[in-house]
Amino acid sequence: MTARRAKILPTRSELRILHALWDMGQGTVEEVTKHRGFSRPPNYKTTQTLLRIMEQKGLVRHVTRGRVFSFVPCVTREEVGKGAVRRLLDQTFGGSPAELLVNLLESASVDEAELEELESLIRKYRAQTKDLSGRVPRSNPPAS
pTM of this prediction? Predict the structure, then answer.
């Protein structure tokens, strides 16, 4: 993600359009509005306007396909996801991943299999970080 796009996260409506484009790879305004992922098809003109705004933000670009524009996403699901999580961490949890995880575990029903998966992911992350730096990362305990 470029430095400019790193700061721009899509709005909820833009994210719906991005999901359609990620599924299709690219699409015209009409193809986006007819995407099966929408519970209710969005308005054609609204979608067209949003795509132009998204293009100005660097979230999509267009290519000419015959006489119509076909829009292609310029950001990946992973880039948007990481940006959204970073914003959530900063704005809601003071930048603390531990606070986010504690809040998640206390507010949602997490079954044993999911807990084991989380523990496994943490072990893998520690191993990767240790391999890269030659040492185990220092953890910052949450403030009480």
Answer: 0.75
Q: Write the DSSP string, 41-94.
A: PPPHHHHHHHHHHHHHHTSEEEEEETTEEEEEESS-HHHHHHHHHHHHHHHHHT
Q: What is the pLDDT of residues 102-126, one digit of tens each?
A: 998 899 888 999 999 999 999 999 9
Asked whether the beta carbons of 89 and 95 are under 8 A apart, the reply is: yes
Using CA atoms, how far apart are residues 111 and 117, in angstroms rounded to an integer? Answer: 10
Residue 88 vs residues 26, 28, 93, 123: alpha-carbon distances, Å: 29, 32, 7, 24
64 Cβ contact list (under 8 Å, min separation 6): 70
Residue 12 falls within a domain, yes or no? Answer: yes
Instruction: Check whether 16 has a pLDDT greater than 70.
Output: yes
Both 12 and 72 in one domain: the answer is: yes
